[in-house]
């Protein structure tokens, strides 16, 4: 059983940056593909970014490519989402998620329903 705790959300203005962190405990962190998802007001939960077990491969939803960066530190059991150039469309609750079953080494699942463990979420609000 993996426990995930997000931190780093907040209220910012358009163009600002934030760094979200997710600390994992209770499992072997390097065994898990890690992802970030978000759910905006009145919207479905959507894939934002994910990183494979070794950290060599990263994937992003088109709307954040070039603005967000996902990183992991397997020694510290953490995954980070660096967000730059934030816009009001990025306003959402951001969730960290872990996937622990077999998957291609350099690919990641991108559907929220595939992930096994979830954090409680952290709110990001971007004002115009």
What this model shows, in words?
With 128 residues, the chain is mainly β. Helix content is 0%, strand content 48%. The protein has no helices and 11 strands. Strands 2, 4, 5, 6, 9, 10 and 11 form a 7-stranded mixed β-sheet that branches. A 4-stranded antiparallel β-sheet has the order 1-3-8-7, with no helix packed on it. Strand 5 and strand 6 form a beta hairpin. It is globular.
The overall average pLDDT, rounded, is 96
Radius of gyration using CA atoms only: 14 Å
Distance between the termini: 40 Å
Largest sheet: 7 strands, mixed
**DSSP summary, beta strand count:** 11
Helix content: under 10%
If helices are DSSP runs of H or I spanning 4 or more residues, what is the number of helices? 0
Secondary structure class reads mainly beta
State which percent range the strand residues make up. Answer: over 45%
Element order: H for helix, E for strand: EEEEEEEEEEE
Low-confidence stretches: none
Give the overall shape, derived from the CA principal axes.
globular
Describe the secondary-structure layout.
Layout: E1 3-7, E2 10-13, E3 18-25, E4 33-39, E5 46-51, E6 58-60, E7 68-73, E8 78-83, E9 92-99, E10 117-118, E11 122-127
Parallel strand pairs: 2-11
Antiparallel strand pairs: 1-3, 3-8, 4-5, 4-9, 5-6, 7-8, 9-10, 9-11
Give the structure's gist in a few sentences.
The chain is mainly beta and 128 residues long.
Features:
single chain, 128 residues, mainly beta, 7-stranded mixed sheet, 4-stranded antiparallel sheet, 11 strands, 48% strand
């Amino acid at each position: 059983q993996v426990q995930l705790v997000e931190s780093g959300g907040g209220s910012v203005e358009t163009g600002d940056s934030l760094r979200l962190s997710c600390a994992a405990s209770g499992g072997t962190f390097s065994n898990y593909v890690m992802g970030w998802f978000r759910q905006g007001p009145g919207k479905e939960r959507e894939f934002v970014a994910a990183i494979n077990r070794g950290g060599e491969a990263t994937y992003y939803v088109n709307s954040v490519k070039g603005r967000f960066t996902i990183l992991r530190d397997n020694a510290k059991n953490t995954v980070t989402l660096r967000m730059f150039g934030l816009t009001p469309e990025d306003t959402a609750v951001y969730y960290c998620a872990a996937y622990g079953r077999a998957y291609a080494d350099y690919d990641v699942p991108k559907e929220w329903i595939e992930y096994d463990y979830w954090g409680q979420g952290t709110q990001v609000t971007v004002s115009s």
